Amino acid sequence: MMQKLNNEALQRLSVAKFQQAPKQPIVLVLDNIRSMHNIGAAFRIADAFLLEKLYLCGITASPPHREIHKTALGAENSVAWEYVADITTLVPSLKNAGYVITACEQTTESITLGTYQADLLQKHAFIFGNEVFGVQDHVLPLCDMALEIPQYGTKHSLNVSVSMGIVVWDIVQGITTSQHRRAPDA
């Protein structure tokens, strides 16, 4: 008979162990995200997939805030984060640190998520923009590429936190699958 796993069976990491654990070479850049629920969800996603860091830019709120905590459920205490007022100062510094800068946006040159093969030896920074306006036009030329989630309905729009979850899961799935392929045979 199927039963839900309890916290002990899930083997959840403590905050201290999470902070010491090796991270995926991925950072999320949240630019002008207006909903604190979406910000909290980004913290949960970063925690779930052991991401390096979140960067909060522009009008994106930062912890501590009860509305962020309501969705983050404490992940704002485990995940490394930094507030940077202007994304145009952050992106060049991430590039200089060796990150591939990817706008998660529908553009004339975007690559479909399902066809994209991330270079698993690279560090990745994924930019997610405002819920209404997306990634700012003046930020796109600073990016190495754009990635979009294929959509088939009438809206061609997903909630930004849903988009974050889909993109991160897909990229991390590729990393973990590659790691399993490279593991020595027993």
Keywords for this entry:
186 residues, alpha/beta, Alpha/beta knot, 7 helices, 20% strand, disordered C terminus
CATH-defined fold name: Alpha/beta knot
The SSE string, one letter per element, is HHEHEHHEHEEEEH
What is the count of β-strands? 7
* Count of separate DSSP helical elements: 7
Over all CA atoms, what is the radius of gyration?
17 Å
Order of strands, main sheet, comes to 3-2-1-6-4-7-5
**What structural class do you assign from the helix and strand content?**
alpha/beta
CATH class value:
Alpha Beta
Average pLDDT over all residues: 93
Contiguous low-pLDDT stretches (5 residues minimum) are 180-186
Helix content: 25-40%
Number of domains: 1
How much beta, percentage-wise?
15-25%
How far is the N terminus from the C terminus? Answer: 32 Å
Q: CATH H-level name... which superfamily?
A: SPOUT methyltransferase, trefoil knot domain
Shape: globular
Descriptive notes:
- It is built from 7 helices and 7 strands, in the order H-H-E-H-E-H-H-E-H-E-E-E-E-H.
- It is α/β, with parallel strands linked by helices and 186 residues long.
- It has one domain: SPOUT methyltransferase, trefoil knot domain (Alpha/beta knot), CATH 3.40.1280.
- Strand 1, helix 3 and strand 2 form a beta-alpha-beta unit.
- Helix 3 packs parallel to helix 4 and helix 3 packs parallel to helix 7.
- The radius of gyration is 17 Å and the shape is globular.
Fold blueprint:
Elements: H1 7-10, H2 15-20, E1 24-31, H3 36-48, E2 51-57, H4 66-72, H5 75-78, E3 81-84, H6 87-96, E4 99-104, E5 111-112, E6 123-128, E7 145-148, H7 160-182
Parallel strand pairs: 1-2, 1-6, 2-3, 4-6, 4-7, 5-7
Helix pairs in contact: 3-4, 3-7
